[in-house]
UniProtKB/TrEMBL annotation, chains A, B:
Its cofactor is a metal cation. Belongs to the homoserine dehydrogenase family. The keyword Methyltransferase does not apply. Pathway: Amino-acid biosynthesis; L-methionine biosynthesis via de novo pathway; L-homoserine from L-aspartate: step 3/3; Amino-acid biosynthesis; L-threonine biosynthesis; L-threonine from L-aspartate: step 3/5. It catalyses: L-homoserine + NADP(+) = L-aspartate 4-semialdehyde + NADPH + H(+). InterPro entries: ACT-like_dom_sf (IPR045865), ACT_dom (IPR002912), Asp/hSer_DH_NAD-bd (IPR005106), HDH (IPR016204), HDH_cat (IPR001342), HDH_CS (IPR019811), NAD(P)-bd_dom_sf (IPR036291). Its EC number is 1.1.1.3. It is an enzyme of class 1 (oxidoreductase). GO terms for molecular function: homoserine dehydrogenase activity. Keywords: Amino-acid biosynthesis, Methionine biosynthesis, NADP, Oxidoreductase, Threonine biosynthesis. Residues 351-425 form the ACT domain. It holds the Pfam family Homoserine_dh. It comes from Streptococcus caledonicus. This is Homoserine dehydrogenase.
């Protein structure tokens, strides 16, 4: 038997699939126990079809989704169009028609995954999406198959290649945020509207999916606090360096005694921490658990071939399950009731960069404000800033999110103090 | 139904299993779709049994393997005794009796895995051993399930925690090999006879197993060249630092145009390479492939809980396959004919540390010898050594193993030259 694929979209990732099927055909066929073949490819319109054919792409291109849905020979539909619609409608149609679906669409899965997953289950078909988190890193299947025996307590991830590329330039070369963004755009790493990448939204999508696999909780995007990298200044980067840290945009998901907490935020990462050496467009998922302790999964978070590799791995699993007649198991079976953490249980050290008037007694006043919220200092740096202003950098001892909100409110009441930035500080 | 386990041995790793079954019972049961229970535990003798019972271990201890083999209620036998015999005989008995087997015994699997694997296949039972390579890192199942779509071209692994702990101390603290060994022994990381760890034999076992999963070739231990860390001097470490490298004991398996080559050797790793920050007893497997490109899997290579976590992950997969009625698939299905590489195809840069007389013309003579084998220099450092001797450090451009053997032979013919050390130099 030959397993036939229907591709939806033939952009960056989709056009990487033929490369793997050709270059690695023997291994793929042996693992799947069947030949895998691209049967039809959905493109937007006749113009695109003509263009692709002219460019030498020898596929059966169609412009109507129903040509794929109604084709009973097509076993697996591969959605690689991106965006919510029409991807959602097309996937829904495919699942309803009893077809297995592979997707890399993190936006869609983070926001509407639940209904698609339950539709797939009702229909007894597979819905896999390894490529949706950290592109080429096989993290989801590893969590679903290997970390079953372990209890995950925290996941820390460098989950967005664009922002990590920019931060790497800001740390290693002292570039400003603006310079880094322009270069990222020139290199094609950042889109003309970079909001999703630099504001932590893309990483938040991935945090939603990681929460399912790591903690069994299908939280919503609105449950993931996110803060981007655009406010990071060269001064913040320099102070971090001086104190032995690098700044990374970290997606953090942890389980506290009261429940789950997920956020994406720029974080001070100790230089000795494995995540500190994840540079450029690379991604990594660092897992803390009661059994293994600490493990990390590192690789390219995007790119044609890495992402297509994850997509094809999903296809091979489905093909193999078809052969074994065990198809229909959910990609992730770990499921628990959602319980979100009290903010008072979410604890971390924090970095504060505060501008104060350059006169006596400022540090005392700051110390009093922090102390009133039971926050103590681990490190303090005081420097003269411009003109009549001084800059105070504080690394606190561990404190809760509640204390953070309270102290931030109190600081904002003092007209003379200006909190420039507040970032999380990770431990070793 | 309850899945019943028979444990062979109740040492470090085995006694970590109850911890996971208790602390993570809900998740494990949900993933396995059945309760998992330790039914019987084989110990050496009555004395051990009495000791363990007195220490509060409430298990059904037996001293005769046949009590487990003949117990038709026991589904899975977990071998955690170590060494070749009687482990091999016991596993063989268990497989013959139609029981599934989980083991962490790298020595046994690297040297006799082939026959045990084929026996398991004949009997239609599972034989899993995730814990045998890099303890807590779920690398084998990830290769078998996720890297199926990818073609691996090279694996580089920091595979031995003991030697990596020692090298980390030698690099970070400037300790000598001897000091590092004494401390490793004090901390229980190294055995009183540390040969297997420091001479690269333990890492070679793991390289054998990684060759199966990464390249589909079941090579023998004799096919893995190995060289240990005992000859590394503080001078080597210092020069490496100076040139931007750290020294690691690296297991390298690569496929050249003519076939597979595997070796374990101290290697200069560029400080910017992800393997360079794998420190202390941590392990990592760095994979180069045509699809993902570069990925790395990092975690503890040993220890009670990490290793038990991998063992229990195997148990959960078997239990689940029993439930799904798909039991009996080999752990690794990737299999190709063994073809070993010509040494002339195996290429790398090399570090040479050579002691020469402290007089004119030595470097020229060295350059002539290297040049006669078509080897050129990337970097040269010449320093005065003790007395009448000088020390020359050379980093070559890429050269083959054949050239290495030839130039080493030629150097040994010059009585005045003394090659102190030759190490591989990895690229970025
Ligand atoms: N690129 C990566 O490295 C990466 C990594 C991880 C995950 N992903 C995910 O993978 C998916 C695909 O990404 P990509 O980078 O391959 O995107 P892409 O290059 O933009 O490809 C998407 C393709 O789908 C086509 N398309 C859009 N709407 C369509 C429709 N209604 N019918 C037919 N074709 C349609 C697009 O055509 P037009 O160009 O004409 O709109 C485009 O050719 C996205 O969900 C993305 O988030 C990508
Ligand atoms: N420890 C790790 O971190 C780690 C990591 C990866 C893989 N592994 C592998 O896991 C396996 C177990 O390692 P371990 O560290 O747990 O070793 P261990 O602490 O020495 O435990 C082995 C146990 O088996 C017992 N035993 C030996 N022969 C026996 C026999 N014939 N019948 C019954 N019991 C017998 C030993 O008893 P005696 O002490 O009386 O001999 C000992 O209690 C080994 O194959 C090892 O290579 C270990």
């Amino acid at each position: 038997m030959t397993i036939k694929l229907g591709l939806l979209g033939f952009g960056t990732v989709a056009s990487g699939i033929p490369f793997l099927l050709e270059e690695n055909g023997d291994k793929i066929t042996a693992a799947a126990k069947d030949q895998i073949e691209i049967s039809k490819v959905l493109v937007k319109d006749e113009e695109e079809k003509t263009r692709l054919l002219a460019a030498g792409n020898d596929y059966h291109f169609v412009t109507d989704i129903d040509d794929i849905i109604s084709d009973s020979e097509i076993d697996i539909v591969i959605e690689l169009m991106g965006r919510i619609e029409p991807a959602k409608t097309f996937i829904t149609k495919a699942l309803k028609a009893g077809k297995h679906v592979v997707s890399a669409n993190k936006d869609l899965i983070a926001s509407h995954g639940k209904e698609l997953i339950s539709l797939a289950q009702d229909k007894g078909v597979a819905f896999y999406y390894e490529a949706a988190v950290a592109g080429g890193i096989p993290i989801l299947r590893t969590m679903a198959n290997s970390l079953t025996s372990d209890k995950v307590t925290r996941i820390l991830g460098v989950l967005n290649g664009t922002s990590n590329f920019m931060l790497t330039k800001m740390v290693d070369e002292g570039w400003s945020y603006e310079d880094a963004l322009v270069t990222a755009q020139k290199l094609g790493y950042a889109e003309s509207d970079p909001t999703n990448d630099v504001e932590g939204i893309d990483a938040a999508y991935k945090a939603v999916i990681l929460s399912q696999f790591g903690f069994g909780m299908t939280i919503g995007l609105e449950d993931v606090t996110h803060k981007g990298i655009s406010t990071i200044s060269t001064a913040d980067v320099a102070v971090a360096q001086q104190l032995g840290y690098v700044i990374k945009l970290v997606g953090a998901i942890e389980e506290t005694p009261s429940g789950l907490f997920a956020e994406v935020s720029p974080s001070f990462v100790p230089k000795t921490h494995p995540l500190a050496s994840v540079n450029g467009v690379m991604n990594a998922v660092f897992v803390e658990s009661i059994g293994i302790g600490q493990s990390m999964y590192y690789g390219p978070g995007a790119g044609q071939k890495p992402t297509a590799t994850s997509v094809v791995a999903d296809i091979v699993r489905i093909a193999r399950h078809l052969n074994d007649k065990t198809i229909g198991k959910p990609f992730n079976e770990f499921s628990r009731e959602i319980k979100l953490s009290d903010l008072s249980d979410v604890k971390s050290r924090y970095y504060f960069s505060i501008e104060t008037p350059d006169k006596k007694g400022q540090l005392l006043q700051l110390a009093e404000i922090f102390s009133s919220e039971d926050i103590s200092f681990e490190q303090v740096l005081q420097q003269k800033a411009q003109g009549e202003r001084a800059s105070v950098v504080i690394i606190t001892h561990e404190m809760s999110k509640t204390a953070l909100a309270n102290v931030t409110a109190k600081l904002s009441e003092v007209a003379e103090f200006k909190v420039l930035n507040t970032f999380k500080v990770l431990g070793e």
